Amino acid sequence: MRLEAICHNEDETAALGARLARELEPGDAALLSGEMGAGKSVFARGLARALGVTEAMPSPTFMLMLPHRASGGLWVYHLDLFRLDGARAFRESGLEEAFSGVALIEWPERCAGAFGAAKRLFNARIEYGEADTERRVVIEREE
């Protein structure tokens, strides 16, 4: 799977997240990369809403991981790894629990190599576009 899109606003970015949600199953992880403020959390919220999360989804920056109950008892784990450094820190923090549901992982490059327990990995790279609100998104499933 490979998908490239230009999103012109936050609603389109969230809708693209919802599109990826249709591909995800328990045990999968969506790795969300991009600069600060590029739209990773907007994408994650759109994805989680499509999975049935109805509660507010604040940023997990200071908590590292926030669990959310979705439709049918599915757990969606939203992680922010910005403050971690390496796969060992990821494992020592007990974050592998996220792979029991669907994991939405921001800043995955901070803990490269830590996601071997995931069933499948989907990379979503969100980059700034030409206009202030425009984003270029590339989604690929790792084989």
Give a count of the beta strands, DSSP E runs of length 2 or more: 7
Q: Which bin fits the share of residues in helices?
A: 10-25%
Give the CATH architecture: 3-Layer(aba) Sandwich
**How many domain modules?**
1
Helix-strand category: alpha/beta
Secondary-structure element order, N to C: EHEHEEHEEE
Mean pLDDT: 96
* CATH fold assignment: Rossmann fold
Strand order of the largest sheet: 1-7-6-2-5-4-3
Which spans of ≥5 residues are poorly predicted at pLDDT below 50? none
What is the CATH top level name?
Alpha Beta
Structure notes:
This protein has 143 residues and is α/β, with parallel strands linked by helices. The protein has a single domain (2-141), classed as P-loop containing nucleotide triphosphate hydrolases (Rossmann fold, 3-Layer(aba) Sandwich). 21% of the residues lie in helices and 29% in strands. The chain is built from three helices and seven strands. It has a seven-stranded mixed β-sheet, covered by helices on one side. Strand 3 (65-69) and strand 4 form a beta hairpin. 37% of the residues are buried.
Observed structural traits:
143 residues, Rossmann fold, alpha/beta, 3 helices
Short description:
With 143 residues, the protein is an alpha/beta fold. It has 3 helices and 7 strands. The chain has helices at residues 10-21, 40-51, 87-92; strands at residues 2-7, 29-33, 65-69, 75-80, 102-106, 121-128, 135-141.
